[in-house]
């Protein structure tokens, strides 16, 4: 038990004062601000530096539950995207200390379930997955306009999640001299209600289905493309209502052969996967309100390294923070 | 939206939730006939393949049946134990029969598909339901109040739930309670519902509104609340759905009224209890929230009565509806576009309708009785309320610094429902590499305390392998006195021991010499071989002076020796004679040559000594070319004071000896390069054992970069502990180099890369502060810069400018607004924060704990010419002011932009984007000098700065000597950028640019630099042509100070005043590139004419087009001053 507490210790608990269920909470690039969104239709931004909690913004604009928020890279300013059941994607921007709508996208016919910003190196662009089965890619063209490309019927009855491939080409351990960046092909992964994980890539300005990964027997709830750690392998995690989490890997530079490895079969639906920044640990959130952390061992097996029991975490947080203060 | 369509007039049953893939069974309905009046029946199974975009459903198998069906259900019984892998299909027939089918056999095309059959019921079996807790229990209802409970495990003898209700009536529906497994409800067309308790085997309650108008067509239990059920009425006079709660069973809790004609079927979603479907004779399919009686959704499709509707148990968004027009349609409740589906549908209908007509008439029947409604809109609005299954209740996401953000939607306890739910987010620290962190902390502690000896000692003792032990011993030596001696000891050479050995060897030799002089052939070889018998041949020699060797050589000389009594000066024609003659005439050289020719080595050397140093040297050379013994090389090296040859040619197996020789003989200034050379040779060797030794050489050499390069190649440093291992060695060695040399050693590209890895690993474990201290300060590597920025921002180290956080005025925003006026109102990529905000953060973060602890000893070393060092600056500078609209319109998203922005990190993401900047340039005033003149660093001063300049000069100087002088200016001075890639060590030119090796005695070369403190370097005057800069800037600060009212601004200005000293220093040293100096002059001119916004503009350009390290020390300060001046309006 002490080992578990050592692995994960709560350092800050933020009471969001949301009036309904929270669906997503994301820290910004620096880990100093927290954005949350809720069924109460609001998006909130908190300054959580040094264990504090200061409400920076309470963003109203959605007319339905807000499912996800995503921070853009700070090189474009302080920008946050949110997507909602109201079929809208709103891009918020902080200007002179106040947050305002920068852009509102209403091109979907049903709930927009997922938003994800692409690698900042290649511009400011956002993928959105919707229950209408379509995926939109919004690209900021620089003069205030957003260029929109839509993939219709990407996932029948709905797309639940989108996640971009990292900018670093697998295998390039050492940074290329600037100007000679390898030709990056924009790619992302999506998961949907057709139980499929699909890979998409841009070719001549058009989005094409690149791969269709079949292993799940129920809705794919979330997908996460692991950050590149310089190794020549691409890695994707997918989780599903069927309780399974798969780790997909591809060693082939062309990206054509993907193999699935079952991380674990949970008793309950799995809602969310999240890779650590260094891409070594996967956090899995299940319907039983449990979060587990997984790490790949040297022999390639995935092992659970921690159960994040939130209730207990909250209790220990008090003692932990007290100890820190002393 | 419609997903699929089957052309059947049939009852439907979805496969159970456990079944994958999803199937839909369709059984011919007993209640509908088409124009053929055919009564033949079939049961068919279709697969729901959502990956297939067409409307068609693939038929997987079918059986023909003698019965048509009144009811069809699909139970999961047998799936778990695989006795019935796809569960059991249960059909209620016309004549009171109940038939059990093995679904998997139908799919497999088996002919024997019926598991069991019973004809116990009287009249048609209209009601069937499977118990969700015990899936082997099935309830059925027929005529005359007959209700049976069947156990699929012993199908033959059903039970009854209790005595039949009176009066006898048909049973139209049965339903098991969803929460309590022994509760069953039944309903009849009369409108009465009965609830049975199977444990009591009796009816426990009757539900009826006494209106006598209810005509029950549907019955469903609330999936969540055990006491609630709904009843649907088929009666057109009362087309309602009643929601009853058995706790108040006198009247319905809610009445769902929206249908205009009787309700034919209902279905309550298992996945979301707030979704209830109903279909009616008004052609509508509605989705209700039964708790609020609100219609959430209306399916936009139906042109016909639907007589059956079902939720898909596995896919919660999917439902199916069977209509009298001969179609089963499958819909998604989530809305979405119907465009593609309708077109496909049209194609399919036209091409294949006839073929799949089950009745084989080939005729398309006209719609039953109702006019076609207008085609539905292509887009369908989704449910008013989001269904439960898309409301994500949990989520844990990682964030920078090993943080994990978890949602916690704490539900109020069931006992206290009035308590509102708390919605909190926990931020946790995740630490996975505890061992790694422990070691990192230990290293950190050592770095702080400086007890490296102890640290290395501990590491040596704890070392797992012999090799590790050696490496740490070598590292340790760096912190001891007499490093070279210690190194030699480590290599196995102890002076004292050796002396003993030699003495004994000599004694032996003398004896043996006396004994068997005759046997000796070559005295030199003999001499070499004799000690070799004890240890390796090189072992002996290095510590002996040359003398013993020489002495012995002469002692043991066995060539026909001159007689000891008297000198006989023979002048004959033999060699002796010739030598004598040569000597007599004083021709040493000839004599020596003769001796050499005659192999009289000793003679020749002795003669050569007499002949003077030149001859001696020549003779030595000749001697060495002539003698080819094993140790001659060494002797040669020793005598010629040239270790290089040995190192380059020695057998690598003898690397130890070679290294020892270097230890002993190498000059301080070449020591490092020689060790390095040996290391490179070893590294290139094929033998892995030898390769490993290379790192010892690098440690001796103190070449951190080479050590890293070797390590990265030889050892896997991807695991955290391996990386820690590497960093420990590198950091300790770096410290050693620092100790020896006193300067900041440059970090090469590879080391920077490794340190970056290490820092990001530390960051991932939450050790942000430690992480930032390891980041190289002097590298331009993009990844390092990014990580540094990220770390410092995460630590909150950036200096907050007033207003930057969001309140008050934004000084830097003023010029931005001015210049964006002629622009389209908004440039989206424009950052929110003012540029200076970011830059201050940058400069602050260069103060790492390392550079704090280690005073930089070489701050005054002049930089190489800047343009040469950074060609990028030179190439971009001329573009200033001439930037074409083409380049201005390059979208910010292109990779080109990326590389530009990150080449020069001062042009950070909080700076206005290039796009913006390019436009601003158009507004640059006329007096702005185009780039060409900038190439000449001398600018004609404007105005008459002499008077005030002198004054400010004096004030400034007095301030300089004041106590307020900032400490450690070196931190801000640009550190010479090391070229990327491991520097090639050229052993032929080891002077000067080599790092001082830790083991090398501190030579004259290094000492002066160390002993002169930074402060004492007398400052040169600022070149006259640049005095105008100082006067202008100082003048502006004074003006601002005079105008400023609040102490904060004053403090800021004072600070700026001091910090501008860095600029003046650079001007004195003339190290600034002409482009920057030119820009500064332009700024000064703008200040003169009080065009501060122009000044800021120029400022931005300078910053964006120059090397960060070059300008970071003073440019932010200038910006502050200009901004203040603008604000104060001085």
From TrEMBL, chain A:
Subcellular location: Lysosome membrane; Nucleus, Nuclear pore complex
Principal cellular location given in the protein's record: membrane
Signal peptide region: none
Annotated WD repeat ranges: 15-56, 59-93, 213-248
SMART domains listed in its UniProt record: WD40
Biological process terms in GO annotation: COPII-coated vesicle budding; mRNA transport; positive regulation of TOR signaling; protein exit from endoplasmic reticulum; protein import into nucleus
Any Gene Ontology CC annotation: COPII vesicle coat
PROSITE patterns, sorted: WD_REPEATS_2, WD_REPEATS_REGION
Assigned keywords, A-Z: Lysosome, mRNA transport, Nuclear pore complex, Nucleus, Protein transport, Repeat, Translocation, Transport, WD repeat
Keyword tRNA processing found: no
Pfam families linked: WD40 (PF00400)
MF (Gene Ontology): structural molecule activity
Subunit structure as annotated in this protein's UniProt entry: At the nuclear pore: component of the Y-shaped Nup107-160 subcomplex of the nuclear pore complex (NPC). The Nup107-160 subcomplex includes NUP160, NUP133, NUP107, NUP98, NUP85, NUP43, NUP37, SEH1 and SEC13. At the COPII coat complex: interacts with SEC31A and SEC31B. Interacts with SEC16A. Interacts with SEC16B. Component of the GATOR2 subcomplex, composed of MIOS, SEC13, SEH1L, WDR24 and WDR59. The GATOR2 complex interacts with CASTOR1 and CASTOR2; the interaction is negatively regulated by arginine.
Purpose: As a component of the GATOR2 complex, functions as an activator of the amino acid-sensing branch of the mTORC1 signaling pathway. The GATOR2 complex indirectly activates mTORC1 through the inhibition of the GATOR1 subcomplex. GATOR2 probably acts as an E3 ubiquitin-protein ligase toward GATOR1. In the presence of abundant amino acids, the GATOR2 complex mediates ubiquitination of the NPRL2 core component of the GATOR1 complex, leading to GATOR1 inactivation. In the absence of amino acids, GATOR2 is inhibited, activating the GATOR1 complex.
Family of this protein: Belongs to the WD repeat SEC13 family.
Name of the protein in question: Protein SEC13 homolog
Organism: Cyprinus carpio (Common carp)
TrEMBL record, chain B:
Renumbered ranges of WD repeats: 118-160, 256-298
GO cellular component: COPII vesicle coat; endoplasmic reticulum exit site; endoplasmic reticulum membrane
Pfam families, alphabetized: WD40 (PF00400)
Compositional bias (Acidic residues): 536-550
Statement: the UniProt record of this protein carries the keyword Metal-binding: no
Sequence ranges of Polar residues compositional bias: 553-562, 841-859
Residue ranges, compositional bias (Basic and acidic residues): 512-524
Biological processes per GO annotation: COPII-coated vesicle cargo loading; endoplasmic reticulum organization; protein transport
Record's bilayer topology term: Peripheral membrane protein
InterPro entries in alphabetical order: SEC31-like, WD40_rpt
GO terms, molecular function: structural molecule activity
Entry similarity comment: Belongs to the WD repeat SEC31 family.
Task performed by this protein: Component of the coat protein complex II (COPII) which promotes the formation of transport vesicles from the endoplasmic reticulum (ER). The coat has two main functions, the physical deformation of the endoplasmic reticulum membrane into vesicles and the selection of cargo molecules.
Official protein name in the record: Protein transport protein Sec31A
